[in-house]
Amino acid sequence: MTSLGIGLIGTGYMGKCHALAWNAVAAVFGDVARPRLAVLAEHSQELADRKAQELGFARATGDWRTVVTDPAVDVVSITTPNAFHPEMAIAALEAGKHVWCEKPMATRLPDAERMLAAACASGKVAALGYNYIQNPIIRLIRHLLDDGEIGEVNHVRLEMDEDFMADPEALFYWKSEASSGHGALDDFGVHALSLIRVLFGGVRRVCGQMAKPYADRPVQGGGRRAVETYDIATTLIELETGASGVIALNRSAWGRKGRIFMQLFGSKGTIVYDQERMNEVQLYTVDGLTDRQGFRTILTGPQHPPYDRFIPAPGHGLGFNDLKVIECRELIRRLDGERAHLIEFEDGICIERTVDAIARSAHEGRWVEVEGR
Amino acid sequence: MTSLGIGLIGTGYMGKCHALAWNAVAAVFGDVARPRLAVLAEHSQELADRKAQELGFARATGDWRTVVTDPAVDVVSITTPNAFHPEMAIAALEAGKHVWCEKPMATRLPDAERMLAAACASGKVAALGYNYIQNPIIRLIRHLLDDGEIGEVNHVRLEMDEDFMADPEALFYWKSEASSGHGALDDFGVHALSLIRVLFGGVRRVCGQMAKPYADRPVQGGGRRAVETYDIATTLIELETGASGVIALNRSAWGRKGRIFMQLFGSKGTIVYDQERMNEVQLYTVDGLTDRQGFRTILTGPQHPPYDRFIPAPGHGLGFNDLKVIECRELIRRLDGERAHLIEFEDGICIERTVDAIARSAHEGRWVEVEGR
Amino acid sequence: MTSLGIGLIGTGYMGKCHALAWNAVAAVFGDVARPRLAVLAEHSQELADRKAQELGFARATGDWRTVVTDPAVDVVSITTPNAFHPEMAIAALEAGKHVWCEKPMATRLPDAERMLAAACASGKVAALGYNYIQNPIIRLIRHLLDDGEIGEVNHVRLEMDEDFMADPEALFYWKSEASSGHGALDDFGVHALSLIRVLFGGVRRVCGQMAKPYADRPVQGGGRRAVETYDIATTLIELETGASGVIALNRSAWGRKGRIFMQLFGSKGTIVYDQERMNEVQLYTVDGLTDRQGFRTILTGPQHPPYDRFIPAPGHGLGFNDLKVIECRELIRRLDGERAHLIEFEDGICIERTVDAIARSAHEGRWVEVEGR
Amino acid sequence: MTSLGIGLIGTGYMGKCHALAWNAVAAVFGDVARPRLAVLAEHSQELADRKAQELGFARATGDWRTVVTDPAVDVVSITTPNAFHPEMAIAALEAGKHVWCEKPMATRLPDAERMLAAACASGKVAALGYNYIQNPIIRLIRHLLDDGEIGEVNHVRLEMDEDFMADPEALFYWKSEASSGHGALDDFGVHALSLIRVLFGGVRRVCGQMAKPYADRPVQGGGRRAVETYDIATTLIELETGASGVIALNRSAWGRKGRIFMQLFGSKGTIVYDQERMNEVQLYTVDGLTDRQGFRTILTGPQHPPYDRFIPAPGHGLGFNDLKVIECRELIRRLDGERAHLIEFEDGICIERTVDAIARSAHEGRWVEVEGR
Predict the structure, then answer these.
(1) Which subunits have 3 or more CB–CB pairs within 8 Å of chain C?
(2) ipTM score of complex
(3) Which listed residue, A203, B198, B312, C168, has the most CB atoms within 10 A of its CB?
(4) Residue D303: which of B291, B297, B301 has the nearest Cβ?
């Protein structure tokens, strides 16, 4: 076990989340060397210094470029706003560093394609931060699918809903500007797509609909401005496996706080998952006497690795931040040349291409094939 | 209060359900005259005699035509297989009887249109049996919407799932034959559409997808036969109100027994309903302190009429059959010239036209406008 | 199948409920003769006449004694206030009628003992109205226990909560007077005890606590009056089987509407039931792989007789009033000399004796043995 | 902000949990100096060395006494088996260190009393590890109570259930030996009591019952041995506030993994909490229109401090280990002379005395007053 040198760019929420993960991974898992938190970058030296102290990094810089070239750094965590990902990730890869970049890859598909090219050229590991797939429950679901517990999945429904855009009188801000992207589709649709990716692989065809619940919003200082993005997106899908389905996204869904509701219908059973109760999954199988069949609520526990590395007793509950620690361990596994449960640029680009296809299908009112899926 | 004379055609489950309702309506509500259960028809005199005894009807016949012309009959309950509805309903209306016909109107749209024409020509009441809309919870939802409790509804999701077609090794039977209709779409999609009808009115545009989870099924005696109907149907929708949404139907959804899951997203709140827990509704509103907001589970009680006519205490629960008693009372209200909560042929035909549009859109892979919505 | 002649005394909610059951039992079950609704009594002839019309009874009387002696009557339904039960039930039994009396037997234990003596002397059937035990779910639970599905039950917890006494500013009325009984204990504790009776048999020892959430209540016209009954009662129990447990009753439990929450812990599994979701039961068993165990929510369906007689499809839900129809069928079964799922006076008296023991134990602050359990 | 020097004794699960908390507290909260992880003790130098590397401690020792006297240490985390707490805590306090000791204080009440005396004599902070009270939901509940949101609480029910002793054929081990304590009562009853402590203060009187679901258990090598502890404990309680209630504990409750179910009934509403869904709480209040009242499920979010320090978005979920980080922050607050949400020895001893009273009341079959509550 050699100790990895870590560079971190960005110290907002996701930066903190990466830092917590790098800090905790050795203690939680007990089977990796404690990483060296080498250097951290923020837009000013002052802020960087303060954050380095809080987050436990040895050095700090106001210039992110010094991170990617620092000889003490093996892996660069990139947690800046999405628009900065391409430049930073490509620079790091070209400097021979491994990259752990928050999702999505970029705000425009061509940039994401360039990132993939840089990763391929570098021969380095280029991983994406897709927390939700790291829930032990999601691995359990994959095991259940692999075991044929619910037979062949023929239909899937995925909903992702939050309410941070639900207030019609909230002030217009950048998330309502076209420059920020399509709206709910890329803002968090990628999470839904990441789950489909790890559970089922590619999406073949899509037929989307995007909607604006509110035509305009008040502007600071008075007046109203037309909303340019779509807070709601729904799409019919057809998977590579042949299964049909639907993905429904709504970031103006009052009362939903972090809901990702997934229903997987198979020939021998059904699996239901709700991210707002992330320590549970429901499983229905056609077993035993018909008068005692029902959806079973499975609580996570040590039987669902790597829950056991966090808590030895079942039913006590992991939290959202713990998922990042798991992702961090998977990244290290990958760096060690092992098989890891991780979305790398090769898979990430398929997610971005699917987003692009959905947006086009919605604008053109027709089914669109996903290319390079 | 004059006592109505009742004729019943068909004594399968829905016939029994109508009979129970006619038997109970006076006792439950206490404000209508006890109906006279005059005559009942089955395909043989012998079966008819037995059923008349069980269900409390005075006379019995093996010929349904004698029911529609019987002078003692004011209202004809039609509960035979769907293919018989048009002939029977039209005959009854032409004989000057009111009609209470189970959903859907017919197996083919032109027949339904003829039924509507007959109803208009007759000047009689022609009501359809759409039980689910009679749940006091659905009326509460309508009140909540009318009160603006969740503001303007901008997005709706409706799922209807059962598992009676979920077993891939169940023998091929008539529900898999093309002659039975499209599949999940008309087999129970009409229920979902009935809820949309009473809550929101018309559907403007649809874009559907229909799928076969199993390509073929075993045939009695050996071999397999290709399935001709679609056990799964999903459709993007746009309502007349401008709201977007999706309807997802699956009659091969293992574990789902009578699920109708409805999510109504508004500018000030959200309503969630699950038919499998038909005595509950969930309501989220943006009121009060932000640290104590949440989905509220409202249990039905005497505050939700006409629950109070069944049970004086809250939380004790109505059953599915009780909904028919409520529908019966609404029909009597309508016959008395009052405003009733009921789907008559005028509304029923809009549901059938929407089904037709969804099927076409699915076959053609494009959005279709619903005509005469 | 001979047709039973029915007499009904009392037409409040439970009288209506009995009438609905007598009206529906033949149609629902299809295997019993349609009862003759012979005569009904109310305290005035006028009210009796009106109710007879509503409820479908042939005759009406203002004198209940004419019901118990009427030659056309085989069974007398007694649904008057509890204080009247002894006199009426004894008169009916002495007149050679079968009795179907609402729970509890009486307001004082000696009266209940006299009722039991009269029943024994008469040789007639004397049944009590304990609706909750008629839920198909409760029968399923008994089957599960008999099958050893959860092994030997070693601990039980039963809660029964409603909120009709929860408002501290509600006016003082008879339920707060000592003459009405102990309070929550006998007001609805008997329901909890009826479930224990049919599932486990006798209660050996009890140690109760009774509490008054509100010392006094406002009196109509002004001032306040001290509350004399206990809206809360909790008792430790030890069953004849040796299992330990607790029964907790609260009729001032805000938000609880008809909750009866039952947890049965066994050596191989656990059963959980909540009356507010009366069409569901939860079952945990130690089967299969440990990573996929969990509480299974079983929805009622045709596999749970006699649900099938009401509705042929699963998951559609029975209501509270349907339980009375089931009880009615069980009573007829008993009258036909068959084994029935019913609480008769012999069992009812054990429930009353347990109530008495709990009250004494609470007053004396010690464990009390239940006699004649 | 001065940096605290930390010593840790014991590196089992709770030791790891303390280490993770000391590692994360500065990064999570951003308002405390990063603690110096000075020295860690295990029973061998070799294990200690390995753990120091994993957990990020600078030095390691095989002798815990060197930790309590180390000048670089300000606070000693004690996470060894309960029997060792008194000696270690007293030594640390006498050496002038602050102590953070896992619950319970000791295995015998006199030892706990000695610990309290040592804490008082030292003038140092002596805190106990009672994780569950640190859930932001518990703080929210306290705010709700303080705000009078549910009026005056007049009845409480608390259940704590797990299934680690549920298998009757699991081998006899130390938890079934009398030397380990009473059983469920002290093994985890203290958690239930800690919640009552922070929400309501003292317990006045108790009347307990303890039960053995299984009389004996198999012994390794053959034969069976009589179980000496009580896996089930139930107690009636009366709080200092006058509220009545019950606490039910079961460590052989199949299917329950980490359930702490709490029902608080007040004069204006009810609060319900289930630790297995630790990011939710249910609140019923008597507000607004009666037809739309219900239990509201509140999901934790940034409105519930200090959730916001972990995650800026609501509904994403904290985990069990996060509670230790919060406890750590509270301890630092206390060390800084601020008011903290923490159970110190003064309160901890009241919990131990209550446990003792319950055990005595169960053995003597009578109500017992809690002394020094």
Answers:
(1) A, B, D
(2) 0.96
(3) A203
(4) B291
